[in-house]
Amino acid sequence: MPVVYIPALMRDLTGGVERVEVEGATLRQVVNNLDARFPGAKARLCQEDRIRPNVAVAVDGEITRLGMLQTVRPDSEVHFLPAVSGG
Amino acid sequence: MSKKVHVQTRINGEEVEFLCEPRQSLLEVLRDELGLTGSKEGCNNGNCGACNVLLNGRLVNACLVLGVEVQGREVTTIEGIASPEGLHPLQQKFLEHAALQCGVCTPGFIVAARALLDKTPRPTEGQVRHWLAGNLCRCTGYDKIVRAVLDAATVKKGKR
Amino acid sequence: MADVKEFKVVGTRPIRHDGTDKVTGRALYGGDVRMAGMLYGKVLRSPHAHARIKSINIRKALSLPGVRAVVTGKDLPDAADRIAELGEGAVNLKYLGNNCLADDKVLYKGHAVAAVAAVNAHVAEEALSLINVKYEVLPPVLDVREAMKDDAPLLLPELRTTSLGQKGDKPSNVASHFQFKKGDPEKGFREADLIVEREFFTATVHQGYIETHNATAMWNPDGLLTIWCSTQGAFTVRQQASELLNIPVSKIKVVPMEIGGGFGGKIRVYIEPVAALLSRKTGRPVKIVMTRAEVLEGTGPTPGSYIRVKIGANREGRITAAEAYLAYEAGAYPGSPVGAGAMCIFAPYDLENAQVDGYDVVVNKPQTSAYRAPGATNAALAETLIDEIAERLKMDPIDLRLKNAAKEGVRRVDGPVFPRIGCVEVLEATRNHPHYTAPLGGPNRGRGVALGFWFNVGLKSSASASVNADGTVSLVEGSTDIGGSRTTAAMHVAEELGIAAEDVRPVVGDTDSVGYTDVTGGSRVTFATGWACYEAAQDIKRQLCERAARLWEISSDDVTYENGGCVSRSDPSRRITFKELAGKLGDTGGPVVGRASVDPQGVGGAFAANIVDVEVDPDTGKTQVLRFTVVQDAGKAIHPSYVEGQMQGGSVQGIGWALNEEYFYDSKGVMRNASLLDYRMPTCLDLPMIDTVIVEVPNPGHPYGVRGVGEVPIVPPAAAISNAIYHAVGIRMNCLPMSPGKVLEEILKKG
């Protein structure tokens, strides 16, 4: 099952838990399932069913540009990070 | 707007005439009146060398010279460095050494280096760095520029 | 992934295709644009760091002979308080627009308030002095820690602190807070035999490109807007202009001229929408070129910052815990790169226990913009603590780093696991370099090392390549060329087709001529645009095989492309070179054009290390750099000369940042050194040669193994120089720049 790494400032929602196994074949499914387990999680990460603009999502270490459409594999890791740009 | 002055001069070996206001710098005249946009404006107050030209053989910042001051004198700009036979060794060596990245400081450097080699045909690294201290480059860190100038100095005169 | 055993073009050093134009002064930069009827624009800027605009009277300015139009913030359509994805990060459009022309408040000295178009630049400037603006001056806040206090003057009344989606309800100058936490830092510190801790203060610095910002806009009567400008991204300019002017992107064409340096500072628009508004009002092309003072005061420098770092290690040299607090000055509007700084600060190390807190804080200074590995240089000052630990444990500084080095499989503090990286290889190459053990005699001389990391990005690129009948290829790609990248792009096509780099003619297209391409920045061009060119070449090869098959009247399954031509698999004596086949395209079905658009995964991060020798003058505090070596992992150096160039250029920017560059503000928030005389960037007289070592640990995610090279070199120099100064005169500087006055002060204190 995919593993979601809970950002430090969201661990109040998960009772301090850092890693959570969450079903889902796409990021949308994972986020929705996460929210079902920990109500309020989606509101932290998303704005109008899209990942918040200043949040980047890394699936298996790669920043995804596909947002909620990103495929997630059964052994994937999902991280939420500040969006980083270059110069 | 004040009355324009008629100026007669020689630029890159050609007789040139133009009209300009007294307040216009040589850099402005070259770029805006004469279409010689090879000399660049980086700071407009003599601190970056991107506008280097030769005035009667002397290296100057065109932003610190008034257009009217070139009356009866000789100006050499970057556009006058190459010849009909081809690139000047400095230009060729800049290309070979990859001594430019964005290229905007390059005209100033080449004119300045030309003035150095005219005066000191085989400069040391220290002399090159001292002479070119008035030319700012933000892209290259100067390493390849200095190497290119030192290499160009080894090319025999007349050899292209 | 290509199975290329030996490269023919990749790794060579062809002369860049645009070289002759650039050394003869013929290349056209944005400032060189000239067209019939063109007017010149100038921008009026706020003299105050913080003020409310009570009124703007433009009557007198409009009636000055030669003036054709005046615009203010009211001429910009109302921007929704909306965030747009601009390809390289999200931007709040209201803030973006307000930064181009202020609405009811000015938030920094230099904030644009109005603009004039006139028959020449001199008249335009005179007109500025006739615009009457009434301000209600407000107290400015000029320091990040002051801005974070509860009683600080507030810049943006609607701003609340966001913590990962949760918005606070108190007005604040703190735009956001985030945190990374891994393991148990408290436990880690308890296990430490040695704890070192320090605060750092860094000043605002500017990217310092030699060419100032420029834009020429022509808003045609048919509603089509064309913008010629020097930009790092024609497509992002188009999108920003579309959003701010409220017109569809299809009505905008952006023509990128040659660009005189960017480093991240020429991504955001400043004068493009203003020139467009003036053009619409006058019906004529309007050109605006910033002065150097405007660039320093009115564009996007990189944040000053306050950073606190604490690191604990056991006596064997293993880091047991690390903690960092980073508060970055975003400038007038939110959006500093504190996130990236927080992600890079401990990235080179394998840490079990760590916590990083980052704060994005607004202050009355220009809105910051990206500057080469944004956020990472400030954070890399943590490397001075690593140096201190090495000294106290009597360990070699590189050995200490090797003992804790990140490698493939290590989990970063921010969460993801590293793929194959070159951290260890870079450290080993540094230790093995002759500079590391060269004798350094003499008083007040010292040697320092430091290590830095940067992510690099991928993003989208497009390319199309047409085969010419004479056996050459015309390549159109969308990455504005700031450092020789069009040649690197061409080399990908040449390598794949088995032809010479000189036989591929690359051109950077405008927004109508090439597919969508993200900015030239983020160390992405060789990686992503190169990849697009690589794929376009694959497309050509496929089509050429079909043509050869047609020529030979065999099945295209029987034809493959290798060694610069097509060959029949079943009868290898049947071959035709690229050049020969190119001449036959007209007879075999028409032109062949290969194209590709990519958004590649597989980005590889990069590490860079420095060895620097300095001599500090104890009477003046001046630091002379005697010798400088930069070791960097490039994955695969496509054109080594330009890779070296990035390493050298980035290092020298880092040296300037370390020793001299700073925005010197007075108590009113006015920059007192807004010229290139007093904003002191390195000259060639300040520097030695910059020695480079390219390490190649191929990035498994890329066909040639490319890792971006442009940004990481600016990350370690400041820390390396700080370490060198310590070893020279026994002082641990904790500020940037380590300018002579500050170093001297510490020398005198030490006595």
Question: What do you see in this structure?
Answer:
The complex is a heterotrimer of chains A (87), B (160) and C (751). Chain A has one domain (3-82): Beta-grasp domain (Ubiquitin-like (UB roll)), CATH 3.10.20. Chain A is 18% helix and 26% strand. Chain A contains two helices and seven strands; from the N terminus they run ββααβββββ. The radius of gyration of chain A is 12 Å and the shape is globular. The mean pLDDT of chain A is 93. In chain B, 29% of the residues lie in helices and 16% in strands. Chain B has five helices and five strands. In chain B, strands 2-1-5-3-4 form a five-stranded mixed beta sheet, with helices on both faces. Chain B starts with a strand and ends in an 8-residue tail after the last helix. Chain C folds into three domains: 19-27 and 458-586, 2-Layer Sandwich (Aldehyde Oxidoreductase, domain 4), CATH 3.30.365.10; 33-138 and 211-260 and 266-298, Aldehyde oxidase/xanthine dehydrogenase, a/b hammerhead (Aldehyde Oxidoreductase, domain 3, Alpha-Beta Complex); 305-456 and 603-750, Aldehyde Oxidoreductase, domain 4 (2-Layer Sandwich), CATH 3.30.365.10. The mean pLDDT of chain C is 96. Chains B and C meet through helix 2, helix 3, helix 4 and helix 5 of B and helix 1 and helix 19 of C.
In short:
With 87 residues, chain A is an alpha+beta fold. Helix content of chain A is 18%, strand content 26%. Chain B contains 5 helices and 5 strands; from the N terminus they run E-E-H-E-E-E-H-H-H-H.
